[in-house]
């Protein structure tokens, strides 16, 4: 997914309770992203957070032959939901508030990915 497509994707989804959307490389580096607010994370914490999301996604691939490929993963915390979506060797990450309908939010994100991928 190219950076220009990712930036259009950011504009498409931000504002619906999503605090952050980004594209993480296989090595856990942020290649493109957008956030209406700054997280309360230091630069080092943000780097470690992104690396951990990328690593979790790669580890899930070990079971693709047994269970099929991962469509998305969700981590639920007290205040936020973190959704990761594999995109080839990269990972899309969404950090969203817990308020609102969760399943329709995830389905909207997946629909947006399909829409952008078709462009």
Short descriptors:
Beta-Lactamase, 119 residues, 5-stranded antiparallel sheet, alpha+beta
Structure, explained:
By secondary structure, the protein is of the alpha+beta class. The protein has one domain: Beta-Lactamase, CATH 3.30.450.30. Helix content is 42%, strand content 27%. It has 4 helices and 5 strands; from the N terminus they run αββααβββα. A hairpin with a 2-residue loop joins strand 4 and strand 5. Helix 1 (3-13) runs antiparallel to helix 4 (102-118). The longest helix is centred in the middle third of the chain and has 18 residues, at 43-60. The N and C termini lie close together (10 Å).
Secondary structure elements and pairings:
Layout: H1 3-13, E1 18-24, E2 30-34, H2 43-60, H3 64-67, E3 73-76, E4 80-87, E5 90-97, H4 102-118
Antiparallel strand pairs: 1-2, 1-5, 3-4, 4-5
Helix pairs in contact: 1-4
């Amino acid at each position: 997914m190219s950076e220009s497509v990712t930036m259009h994707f950011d504009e498409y989804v931000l504002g619906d309770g999503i605090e952050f959307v980004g594209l993480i490389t296989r090595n856990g580096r942020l290649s493109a992203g957008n956030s209406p607010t700054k997280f309360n994370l230091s630069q080092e914490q943000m780097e470690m957070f992104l690396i951990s999301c990328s690593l979790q996604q790669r580890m899930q691939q070990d079971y693709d032959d047994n269970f099929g490929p991962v469509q998305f993963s969700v981590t639920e915390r007290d205040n936020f939901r973190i959704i990761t979506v594999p995109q080839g060797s990269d990972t899309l990450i969404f950090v969203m508030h817990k308020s609102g309908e969760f399943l329709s939010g995830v389905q909207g994100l997946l629909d947006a990915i399909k829409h952008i991928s078709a462009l």
